[in-house]
Design goal:
heterotrimer, A mainly alpha (about 325), B alpha/beta (about 260), C mainly alpha (about 290), B: alpha/beta, 2 domains, about 40% helix, C: about 290 residues, mainly alpha, ABC transporter involved in vitamin B12 uptake, BtuC, two-stranded antiparallel sheet, 2 strands, about 5% strand, transmembrane (chain C), transmembrane helix (chain C)
Chain lengths: ~325, ~260, ~290
């Protein structure tokens, strides 16, 4: 317990103090954008991981990120909502949509579910292209930066437009969102809900026979996953101040899945580590110019050959396989 | 006879053109041990699945304490108090024995999932109660020594006991055992027979079992229902069944010819 | 109407060929080959290089595409998938590998052939015109016929050759095939090579008509997934059915829905969702793959 508290403390210290100090000292301000992206992508990846936890491979998180982004952008631009109100609404909208979509498709298993979710990303993109409210291929641009958030006159988050350093503000915001997401995920996994998800992952028939409402639990897990995807998307849109149908595409969905796999599916913090390594690695490799993708994918393949069960499997307890 | 706890009424199941169960009816009394026997492919498993809610009968119904359970999904049937065990491989592989049994206490929880998420007082009471009850069941089945073993590492005999522990964790009134003696040698079978009796005597359960092992069935059952080609051909006490010409014929006509005495 | 059918048949033949390769790999190894679209693009570029750069006849280009992709596929199976499948705890690990390979092939294509859209000159000129009812350039007809010939040869190969029969046994039941003495490793490799070869061949065929570019890989994979979902994963007849159905739907959609903007694929996807809700295993698939 004490060890765990130290771990959490070190993590928070690193994310909220050491990283900003490091960046201020080295002057690599561009790292803020990269690290903010890592934080937000790992929020989305957390959702994918939770879907895996009930035994489903989700390659459709890009769809929910896109939907979340559009919900926030439209509410801000057309209805004049504050960004901070649209952030949870984007998540809720995604969760609701995922219930409707999840009810039929969560009956599919294995590769079938994976393929359908992959296709879902493409559906989201095409829908954004076809609908009038999303403004087609031109997308929605010039979205204002998030305004002030205050409760009873007390300013909790200042107006981003008035900040001297919005990059730092976005980083802190993204990191806070990430910390909150993983806190929630960690609680889910270590509470009864997580145990039931594991029972579902390992044997759906048996889970049903001990009284678990498997259909409901699957939809619940999937909607939480989509909620994470939605808020990640909304945050991204706030940073880039624009959204297009191609803001999140199939490649992004595949990437979300890769982040989870790479970190290791058996560990709550696996997706965070996977996102950091893959995204940050990709960013650092930009010095390799045209060889960037080659080195990136090459090392990914090499890693698979060495550690086919994910990075964190290095710390695996022994379990015989059959 | 007291009011039956479980009633099978005219249950018929067709798959396409194939009739797996035809008009099967029988009653099960509380605290009775009743075996369903029959040659391979007679339709025993199909009948079991229908009682536990895994498939719905084409016609007919299953009543539990007078109210209909056929047509309900398995988790609702389990909630009412009728639970099935599977053959040995059906366990949660990547959990320890104790985790398996604890998670199977799902039905006993009074706190909501949200309550568990936030660790409410009720949730903590529940968890403590599950842990206590799980240990109780583990002791009852004599699994103390493997409490913390990973389920995927267990040998067959223990897997079956674990399957039973998972079933017991739902605190059922009726337990359906799917071939509990399959693949066991004489000593193991005798231990399992004693255990099934204890389920009834010490935990007050009604036991319904599907089984091939005739000597064990004869020894353990209060009554036996025999099925052949999807139809019930006999029902009665072990001695009545042994003397029934239709049963003998059914078994002589099939591969497992001898009804062991 | 005739025009729509003809277009649908032409498209469907290409699609079915792509889906066949994907489904073959899936049925043999339970691997969802994310890199299938990239293999298709690679095949297109090989034909382009042989025909447009070296000035050799089209048929040489096609053979080169088939050969290069078959070798590539065989190597990928032997040195990448086989060791990972053997050592990984979850079958999903192969998805990560497949996605990695897709990115890798993208990188290789980028380095070797660049980003530009490439094409080769028409192989036959002229347009077939039947009373203004069906209008189709001769080269499309030729490619369509070639594709259908390839599909038929593939079916015959799977049905009657020793290798084909061994692969079908393997697809049906890996364990049983092993017990029957089928060399599982060898036929997995041959199957993967064959699947990659089919993708390469389609690339080679289509480079003469639509041309080829780096960005076509991902969308092609998505379409191929669609087809095997419609037909049922891992089933040869399903892949062919899925290919032709998608080709037909696309052809019909482009004509009928043109008035409403570019929504053909949206309608196809929506239909698929409903279809899968009713029949999760596709038209001809086994339940739960």
């Amino acid at each position: 317990m004490a060890l765990r508290l130290i771990g959490i403390g070190a993590f928070l210290l690193g994310v909220f103090v050491l990283v900003p100090v490091f960046i201020a000292v080295t002057g690599r301000w561009d790292f803020y954008y990269t690290l903010t992206s890592v934080a937000l992508l790992s929020v989305g990846a957390a959702g994918v991981w939770l879907t895996f936890y009930i035994g489903r491979i989700n390659i459709g998180q890009g769809a929910y990120a896109l939907v979340g982004g559009y919900v926030s952008a439209i509410l801000v631009m057309k209805a004049g909502f504050s960004f901070w109100v649209t952030l949870p609404l984007a998540g809720v909208a995604c969760a609701l949509i995922s219930v409707v979509i999840g009810l039929p498709i969560l009956r599919l298993r294995g590769v079938y579910f994976a393929m359908v979710t992959l296709v879902l990303t493409e559906v989201a993109r095409l829908t954004a292209l076809a609908l009038p409210v999303t403004n087609g291929a031109k997308g929605i641009t010039s979205i204002p930066l998030p305004g002030e958030l205050s409760i009873l006159g007390l300013t909790i988050i200042p107006d981003f437009a008035g900040l001297a350093n919005p990059k730092l503000a976005f980083y802190l915001m993204g990191a806070a969102l990430m910390a909150l997401t993983y806190l929630v995920l960690w609680r889910i996994v270590n509470s009864r809900l997580g145990h039931l998800c594991r029972s579902l992952q390992q044997n759906e028939e048996l889970a049903a026979s001990i009284g678990v409402n498997t259909a409901m639990l699957r939809v619940l897990a999937y909607s939480i996953s989509s909620f994470f995807g939605g808020i990640a998307g909304a945050m991204f849109v706030a940073i880039s101040q624009s959204i297009y149908p191609s803001s999140f595409v199939v490649t992004d969905s595949v990437n979300f899945m890769l982040y989870c796999f790479l970190g290791g599916l058996g560990y709550v913090f696996g997706p965070m580590l996977g996102t950091l390594l893959l995204y940050f690695g990709w960013d650092l490799l930009s010095v390799a110019k045209q060889y960037q993708l080659l080195i990136y994918s090459g090392s990914m393949i090499a890693l698979m050959l060495v550690l086919p069960n994910g990075l964190l499997s290095l710390f695996d307890k022994k379990e015989s396989r059959q | 006879m007291t009011a039956p706890i479980l009633q099978i009424k005219g249950v018929t199941k067709r798959f396409g053109g194939l009739t797996a169960n035809s008009e099967i009816s029988f009653d099960v009394a509380p605290r009775e041990i009743l075996s369903v026997i029959g040659p391979n492919g007679a339709g025993k498993s199909t009948l079991f699945k229908q009682i536990a809610g895994f498939i719905n009968p084409t016609s007919g119904e299953v009543l539990f304490k007078g109210s209909r359970i056929s047509g309900l999904p398995p988790h609702k049937v389990a909630r009412l108090g009728v639970v099935r065990t599977f053959q040995e491989t059906t366990i949660f592989r990547s959990m320890t024995v104790r985790e398996n049994v604890v998670v199977a206490h799902h039905l006993r929880s009074k706190a909501s999932l949200l309550g568990f998420f936030f660790g409410s007082g009720q949730a903590r009471t529940d968890e403590a109660e599950f842990a206590r009850s799980a240990d109780d069941i583990i002791d009852f089945l004599g699994l103390q020594s493997i409490r913390n073993e990973m389920a995927s590492n267990l040998p067959q005999g223990h897997l079956r006991a674990l399957g039973m522990a998972i079933g017991l964790a739902t605190h059922p009134e009726v337990i359906l055992l799917d071939e509990p003696f399959a693949g066991m040698n004489h000593d193991e079978t005798m231990r399992m027979v004693a255990l099934v009796r204890r389920l009834r005597d010490e935990r007050g359960l009604t036991v319904l079992l599907v089984e091939h092992d005739m000597p064990a069935v004869m020894k353990i059952s209060d009554r036996i229902v025999c099925i052949n080609f999807g139809e019930k051909i006999a029902e009665g006490t072990p001695s009545e069944i042994q003397a029934n010409p239709r049963v003998i014929e059914a078994y002589l006509g099939s591969e497992d010819a001898a009804i062991g005495m | 109407m005739e025009q729509i059918l003809a277009n649908g048949l032409y498209l469907g033949a290409q699609y079915a060929l792509i889906a066949l390769g994907l489904t073959l790999i899936f049925s043999l190894m339970n691997v969802l080959n994310f890199a299938h679209g990239q293999m298709y693009v690679f095949g297109g570029f090989v034909t382009y290089t042989v025909v447009a750069q070296f000035g050799l006849p089209f048929i040489v280009g096609l053979v080169a595409s088939a050969a290069v992709l078959a070798v590539l596929g065989g190597l990928i199976e032997k040195f990448l998938f086989r060791p990972v499948i053997r050592r990984s705890k979850r079958e999903e690990s192969t998805m990560l590998l497949a996605a990695g390979i897709a990115f890798f092939l993208d990188a290789v294509i980028l380095l070797l052939f660049g980003e530009k859209q490439r094409g080769v000159p028409k192989i036959v000129n002229g347009v077939f015109n039947w009373d203004m009812r069906i209008i189709m350039p001769y080269d499309r007809i030729l490619i369509g016929i070639l594709a259908i010939t390839l599909i038929v040869s593939f079916i015959l190969f799977m049905q009657y050759s020793r290798t084909g029969r061994a692969m079908r046994a393997l697809a049906q039941d890996r364990m049983a095939a092993q017990l029957m003495g089928v060399d599982v490793d060898r036929y997995s490799m041959i199957g993967f090579a064959l699947g990659a070869m089919l993708a390469g061949l389609v690339g080679g065929l289509l480079v003469t008509i639509t041309g080829i570019n780096l960005g076509m890989g991902g969308p092609t994979s998505v379409k191929a997934f669609l087809m095997i979902m419609i037909g049922g994963a891992g089933v040869i007849s399903g892949a062919i059915a899925g290919g032709f159905i998608l080709g037909m739907m696309e052809s019909v959609g482009l004509t009928l829905l043109a008035a409403y903007g570019d929504i053909t694929y949206l309608v196809i996807f929506a239909t698929l969702m409903v279809f899968l809700a009713i029949r999760p295993q596709g038209l001809m698939g086994k339940p739960w793959g």
